[in-house]
Structure formats: structure tokens, C-alpha cells
Specification:
The protein has 330 residues and is of the alpha/beta class. The chain has two domains: 215 residues, P-loop containing nucleotide triphosphate hydrolases (Rossmann fold, 3-Layer(aba) Sandwich); 101 residues, Magnesium chelatase subunit I, C-Terminal domain (Helicase, Ruva Protein, domain 3, Orthogonal Bundle), CATH 1.10.8.80. It has a five-stranded parallel beta sheet. A hairpin with a 4-residue loop joins strand 3 and strand 4. The longest helix has 18 residues. It is globular, with a radius of gyration of 21 Å. The two termini are 13 Å apart. 40% of the residues are buried. The N terminus is likely disordered.
């Protein structure tokens, strides 16, 4: 299955070429700040164009803040950083309504969530109550304070980092919040060559500050609309649905892929395909994105965790269990 179904609405060749060039320029630009991590940069930008959010589980000092700043600078957007701590309050994230004695009226003062790219640093160090302040904005692109909704605008993306759960002072993210992240990945430490290059430019305190913009925020919105038009054959949709169904049947899994997760899968596969120069999704797109899309949505039972089974192992088992389609759907 290498071509789109005849008559299906697809992106034109000219639009596809523009999208691929723009996406490639964004990747190259962000890589100035995050060396040797092209695949992770592509995943992060796929999240942005797909109007989703990214969860990074990583150790300190691997370039998470630089990644967020570089993406925001690349798209002429604003960025903010929220350091999640046990004493952080929901209003510290969303903002507050304050009474103005001069005007005799209440006015809303937006919190740091009002930015194009929001880095929610060490999100699992805050209490569940504060974590829940992100639920509405990540789903509906708005926050409601004192009964009044306040849109955060588009594009909008939360890049949240969490420490490995075995570290002290961390809270597990609720399942509902995990499911709102489009993808989960890890930057990891750079390779030897990239580390040497970073050390050679140690005089540059903030690499992301030197990243200029290459595209406007309105162009990102246009890219999102183009990605929505990418063709997905019914056989591919059936493949994703079958993966979700089988994930709920696996013995080691206590919570499988949700319907929201399936919708996320389709969205990122469309963007991934178009960034690769195709106006249609192929089974390899689904397989390549399996771990970033499913690793935080498949929750293992206690026995599997105790036995040392990893989510990646389970996803590998799932992909071998469900055969990809070899022909178009009806």
C-alpha cells in the first residue's frame, strides 16, 4: 500500500513541497540549540504541528529547556517556564482575577500558561491538584477562572518534563492527564561528537537565544490544516483500531490505548507522513510512531512491573501480534 485511494481529498504536490521545506527548516533551526537529536526534534515539531503536547521523561541537564525555547523562537512565538514544586498552586499556573479599586471592576491576570510554548518543568513534583490545572487547557486551549473562559491562542504546546518515578518527591501523573499528551519521548544524553561540539562552545550560555525565527505562528496553523488533509486509508484506520483493541487484551497491561489515543495516533501519523513528503499514511508510519504515542498510555500491572517488563517490550509484542495491512481497505 504505497498510494492514496483514488478520488480521496489529498494535499497537492505544491502544498506538500511547501510543508516539507518548512518542516525541514524548522528541524534544522531547532537543531542549532539541541545538537545530535534530530529524531527527537522531529517528534517535538510533529507534536506542535499536530496541535498536541509532549511529555519528556529525562534527567536534569539534557537540554529540555533549550528545546522549548528554540521551538518558540523558531515560530516567532512566546515561551514560558513553570517550575513545578510541591507548594505550587493552580492559580500560579492559570492566573488570577484581581479587584481593581480604581475601576471598581475585576480584571484577569493571566499566568505563565499563556504562551506559545510552555515548559512545565518537573511536572510530577507538583501535587495532583496543581497538575490538574493543566487538564482543561491541554484539551480545549483555554482556562476557566471564576467561571470565565480565557483562550490561550494557537499554536499552543505544553512540553512537560518529569523525573523518573523512582526519584524522591515525585507524584505519578493521573491517567487522564497522561492521555492528554500526544507523545512521550526522552532527549537522553548527546553522543560523543555532539558533546565535544557543546563543550567547544561553552562560552555560549544560552544556545537557544541565538535561534532566530524561520516561520510565523500563522504558518504553523496553516501547516496543521494541511496535515489534517493527509489521506489515511481505511485499512490503516483498522490497523490502529486493532492495535488499540489488542493492547487492552494483553495480560501485562491494566490500561490499554484509549479512543483519544487512537485519534492522537492518526493525527501524528498524518503530520509525520507529510513531513516525509507523502500525502498519505503508510503502515511504517504507524509502526515508527508506536513507542512515542503508546508508551505513556499503556499502563502495566504491578506483576509485570515487578518482573521488570518494560512498556517498550509490550509495544514490540503488540506490533508483532497485529499484522499491518498489505492492501487498501474497502
Amino acid at each position: 500500500m504505497t498510494t492514496a485511494t483514488a478520488g480521496a481529498p489529498v494535499v497537492t504536490s505544491e502544498q506538500g513541497n511547501w510543508f516539507q521545506r518548512a518542516f525541514g527548516a524548522l528541524v534544522t533551526n531547532v537543531e542549532q540549540a539541541v545538537l545530535g537529536k534530530q529524531h527527537i526534534v522531529r517528534l517535538a515539531l510533529t507534536c506542535l504541528v499536530s496541535e498536541g503536547h509532549l511529555l519528556l521523561e529525562d534527567y536534569p541537564g539534557t537540554g529540555k529547556t533549550s528545546l522549548a525555547k528554540a521551538i518558540a523562537n523558531s515560530v516567532q512565538g512566546s515561551n514560558s517556564r513553570i517550575q513545578f514544586t510541591p507548594d505550587l498552586l493552580p492559580s500560579d499556573v492559570t492566573g488570577v482575577t484581581i479587584y481593581d479599586q480604581r475601576t471598581g471592576q475585576f480584571s484577569f491576570h493571566g499566568g505563565p500558561i499563556f504562551a506559545t510554548i510552555v515548559l512545565a518543568d518537573e511536572i510530577n513534583r507538583a501535587s495532583p491538584k496543581t497538575q490538574s490545572a493543566l487538564l482543561e487547557v491541554m484539551e480545549e486551549n483555554r482556562v476557566t477562572v471564576d467561571g470565565t473562559p480565557h483562550p490561550v491562542g494557537r499554536p499552543f504546546m505544553v512540553i512537560a518534563t518529569q523525573n523518573p518515578i523512582e526519584q524522591a518527591g515525585t507524584y505519578r501523573l493521573p491517567e487522564a492527564q497522561l492521555d492528554r499528551f500526544l507523545m512521550k519521548t526522552s532527549l537522553g544524553y548527546p553522543d560523543h561528537a555532539s558533546t565535544v561540539a557543546l563543550l567547544a562552545s561553552a562560552a555560549t550560555r544560552d544556545r537557544a537565544a541565538g535561534v532566530g525565527n524561520v516561520i510565523t505562528t500563522s504558518a504553523i496553523t496553516q501547516m496543521s490544516r494541511l496535515a489534517d488533509q493527509v489521506h489515511v486509508d481505511p485499512a490503516i484506520l483498522g490497523y490502529i483500531s486493532q492495535l488499540a483493541h489488542e493492547s487492552r487484551q494483553l495480560r501485562q497491561v491494566r490500561l490499554g490505548l484509549s479512543v483519544r489515543g487512537c485519534l492522537a495516533y492518526v493525527r501524528v501519523a498524518k503530520t509525520w507522513a507529510l513531513a516525509d513528503g507523502r500525502s498519505f499514511v503508510v503502515p511504517d508510519d504507524v509502526k515508527e510512531l508506536a513507542i512515542p504515542v503508546m508508551s505513556h498510555r499503556l499502563l502495566l500491572d504491578a506483576e509485570a512491573e515487578f518482573s521488570g517488563v518494560s512498556v517498550e517490550d509490550v509495544i514490540g509484542q503488540l506490533l508483532s501480534r497485529v499484522r499491518p495491512p498489505t492492501s487498501r481497505g474497502a
